[in-house]
Amino acid sequence: MSNTDLESRQSSLSLDSLEDIRDPLPVFENMEQDQGEPDDRLHLTKELTKTLTLPPLADDDPFFDRFPKRTKTLFVGIVSFTCFLSPISNLAFTPAIPEVAEALNTTSQMINISNAIYNVFMAISPMMLSPLSSLYGKKPVMILSSLGYTISSILTAESQNLAMFFIFRAMNAFFGTCCFSVGGSIIGDIKVPKERGRAMSWVLMGTQLGPAFGPVLGGIIITYTNWRVIFYVVTGLGVINLLMIIFFLKETSRMVISKEIAKRTGKRFVFVKYNPFRVLFAFQYVNLILAGVISSSIMYNMFGLLTPIRHVINPRFNLNSPVLGSLFYLAPGSGLLLGGPIGGRFADFTVKRWMKKRGGERIPEDRLRSATYSLGFVMPVFMIIYGWSLQKKVGGMALPIVSMFFYALGQTIAFPSINSYCVDCLPSLKGDAIASNYFARYIVGGSVASATCLVQINNIGIGWTATISAFVAWIGFLSNELMIRYGASLRLRALAKIEAKTKVKKNQEN
Q: Mind telling me which PANTHER family this protein's record contains (predicted)?
């Protein structure tokens, strides 16, 4: 391949997407290739890796203007609805746990363990499936995700024993969760950095409204019919989502690697091998470790609050109907609903305010400043009030309801900043940065809280359990403050490390 030919090929590409090709190099194979026929695709891949150090796109790049504003809004809505489905499936059956346990001849604690397994597979999913979005396109991965989610939902509804229930719920989590990180990448494709906070808040609203309002839906269903109907309803939502993705979502990637290789080699089908564990490599950078700690602390608090509501609220107020206990989920749900738009706007406002202070310079860490008060005060304080008001039986229904509302409000203000930071901080990692963050939040925060919250409540009470959650939130606050103060230097060190690895790779190729 001549240098002139390579330069002409490179000039026709948006090469930022090629940053996904990292060590180990992907190998391109084609089933149609004859035995012994020389394949120049691996050579082409190595040539393309020479562009890895190109800078990210500027805010005024025409790439961000490919779609009109209404189309971008539609894309954000589709991504938000997609992100709503997996969390609603996770906790919608929470009010029905005793009924599910009875039907499957097991205990409520064992069914709660299925929630922990669900969170484990929610963590694995972005690691396994998200890298495919840069290889085959974001829309095909979103279709695969929605299709797998829909099929596994109906199989969960048809589960006849505990093993089937565990397996199909794990599948449900696996297919339903990769859309979180892929959705974040779609936002990064259509929104300039200073506008991403608001768009990301709508996406995050989907991920948080699912756990908040899902149990209300589940409580209504289990009161008037049986638990399997919950998953039939979720299946219907999955079908609607699948049709929306197929007919209305367009590919937003700057370049789809498999299509580009197929076009250049003249092959109709290209199979791209990849290393799914590359997402874990993101944790070699300290700023992404701290970002994972922040998200994990928020997720731990969220599941610690939402998972046991029926178990602590119903006995406290002598509620006998599942639907009555599930109505308490409306308190955090309202906080999440209100906090979503506020959080995104506040994050964007914070970024613009600090840009003005610096004379127009924008740094990703500025966005984290919008989470300071939520992590340091609102979330832990109202979590403690919620727990001890139930433990000491003070404040009636009003105090825990108000506490849940303000806790959820603070949580939703904090989340957009950390998600947008993961999209902005290390552009060369592309979707791996945010995928690693989702891995951390569900494997550490979601699964641990789901598996242990009832054990803690039964042994030390809801008051001390909520106090532990508050201290976890303060750990997230400390990590956030470290990022605000030292994040820029950590990020620059990470960028230097990436550049050094790229130079070594180039020297080896030459």
A: MAJOR FACILITATOR SUPERFAMILY (PTHR23502), TRANSPORTER, PUTATIVE (AFU_ORTHOLOGUE AFUA_3G11760)-RELATED (PTHR23502:SF64)
